[in-house]
Design goal:
single chain
């Protein structure tokens, strides 16, 4: 049984299996389209919401947070690009794990990606609704907030919703109507087809980038450089404290990799699209963080709508409206990209026999995975009625980073290949001496600069065990990778990607880990009750 759990698909078999499924998806995307899809996914929740909490935690020094995340995602993007050049079909990290580690890990990644795409879209839908209701006043409070948030009575809106909501018996009718409606509309757009989605996404990205540029240009005139002193008011720990929350905003290049089958030249365009979108968005994050912390004190930025808040504080009302409109556009484009990614992962899993065949059916008229798209709409839409933003946000990032770690690790075990003209090839840099020496230097420097922070990580007690234990595990992973790099002479880029993502994972709270394990147990039950028996690799044995 153990051998069957780790049965692998060969790279050639992945592509040949894809050819057996009749009409494929519509190949209409070029490198510009893929870059725009990446920008559409990245510039959204991280720009218009999460950046405020990150700035409040780290002050102006939060720019280092975005640099660290950008570097980690850059290494991971190169690993995605290596897989995408070898396996140019839909499926993202799921397909890559199937080739590298085998079926069980592939299923785990596919199940985790539901957290990244579908569950993540629930949070974006809630955020979209918040900005939309600022633009359209007059909607009753009980139609603009979710039930759990209203029940907590934590804001004037929640109190008004709970007080004024109609009831059926003892059950109050409270739900976020704008979030539900935008999910239905996005599902319909994705169902109709990729070409229409491409045009819709590209138009929104143009508008979104123009508004962000306006925010930066106007904000530059209101910068007070005294707000940048001290640059790291809460120290190194404060700067890195928001990494896990911000990391969710970098998931755009992963969404791009799911569009391989709809790319005109995936071997060439996918790597470029992922890297271009990552570079563009990292620069935008850094500049925006400097503008935000320069305009007002970092202590005032711990809100859900920081870009609107800074102009509210400065009394620039016309910019508040523009920012709210831009936020609605940004959130819509993020919903669009993630809603495209999830059905295509399910489609690929269905082709492998791990999910029912209906998930793999391509609509003959629109050439999209129609059934999987509708199911995704329900998976996003139904929880909108009984969950809230905080739970969803805590639930998403850990699955994303976990997937990234397996992608980087997967590249390490792929067989070497010869360079081919017109295809991406991950440069090989021997990590035998470079990684151990670099790791020792970095740890030595940080321990010298921040001795108290690292001292606290080794004091595992009841008070700090939740933060110290993950960090100790990270140190152990680094030590193991130093040894393996020296012995096996691994390629440096995936090693750095794996280690940097493990560091981000060490910042997750215990509640994140608890719900992650619960979700994984549910996934394993589903796998062993259906996928293990129905797998196409099982039928070949």
């Amino acid at each position: 049984m153990m051998q069957s759990l780790f049965r692998k698909k060969q790279v050639d078999a992945v592509q040949s299996d894809h050819g057996e499924h009749g009409a494929g998806l519509n190949k209409v995307l070029n490198v510009r389209d893929l870059t725009f899809f990446g920008v559409a996914a990245i510039i959204g929740g991280g720009t218009f919401s999460a950046i405020g909490n990150a700035c409040a935690a780290g002050g102006p020094g939060v720019v280092f947070l975005y640099i660290v995340c950008g570097i980690a995602c850059g290494f991971t993007a190169l690993c995605y690009a290596e897989f995408a050049s070898r396996v140019p079909v839909s499926g993202s990290a799921y397909t890559y794990a199937y080739v590298s580690f085998g079926e069980l890990f592939a299923w785990i990644i596919g199940w985790a990606l539901i957290m990244e795409y579908s569950i993540g879209n629930i949070y974006i839908a809630f955020s979209w609704s918040g900005y939309f209701t600022n633009l359209v006043p007059g909607i009753p409070e009980w139609l603009t907030i979710n039930y759990l948030s209203a029940k907590e009575l934590g804001s004037p809106e929640a109190i008004a919703a709970w007080t004024n909501a109609p009831s059926i018996g003892s059950l109050k009718i409270i739900f976020d109507l704008p979030a539900v409606v935008i999910n239905i509309l996005i599902t319909a757009v994705v169902y109709v087809g990729t070409k229409e989605t491409k045009n819709f996404s590209n138009a929104m990205v143009y508008i979104k980038l123009a508004v962000i540029l306006l925010v930066i240009m106007v904000g530059l005139f209101y910068i007070d450089m005294n707000n940048w002193e001290p640059f790291m008011p809460n120290g190194f720990e404060g700067v890195m404290g928001g990494v896990s929350a911000v990391f969710f905003a970098y998931v755009g290049f992963d969404a791009v990799s799911t569009l391989a089958e709809e790319s005109k030249n995936p071997q060439r365009d996918l790597p470029r699209g992922m890297m271009y979108s990552l570079i563009i968005c990292t620069v935008i994050y850094i500049v925006l963080a400097l503008v935000l912390t320069g305009m007002v004190s970092y202590q005032l930025l711990g809100v859900d709508d920081p870009l609107a808040e800074i102009f509210k504080i400065k009394g620039i009302k016309w910019m508040m409206w523009i920012v709210s409109i831009a936020a609605v556009i940004a959130m819509t484009s993020v919903l669009l990209v993630f809603q495209m990614g999830q059905p295509r992962i399910w489609m690929t899993m269905s082709r492998d026999g791990l999910m029912p065949q209906r998930f793999g059916k391509v609509n003959p008229r629109y050439q999209t995975p129609g059934f999987a798209t509708i199911v995704t709409g329900f998976v996003v839409g139904v929880p909108l009625f009984f969950t809230n933003e905080k739970f969803i946000l805590d639930f998403t990032s850990i699955g994303t980073i976990f997937a990234f770690i397996l992608v980087c690790g997967g590249v390490l075990v792929l067989p070497k290949k010869e360079k081919e003209a017109g295809k991406f090839h991950l440069p090989y840099i021997n990590s035998k001496y470079i990684f151990p020496a670099t790791a020792l230097f970095v740890f030595g420097f940080l321990i010298f600069q921040y001795p108290e922070y690292f001292k606290s990580q080794f004091q595992v007690s009841g008070e700090n065990i939740e933060t110290a234990l993950p960090m100790l595990v990270f140190f152990a992973v680094c030590a193991i990778m130093m040894v393996l790099s020296f012995v096996k002479e691994y390629s440096l880029i995936p090693v750095l990607g794996l280690v940097s993502c493990c560091y981000l994972l060490s910042g997750m709270a215990w509640t994140n880990w608890k719900w992650f394990f619960v979700w994984m147990v549910i996934g394993l039950v589903v796998y062993f009750s259906y996928g293990y028996r129905k797998s196409k690799l099982a039928t070949k044995v």
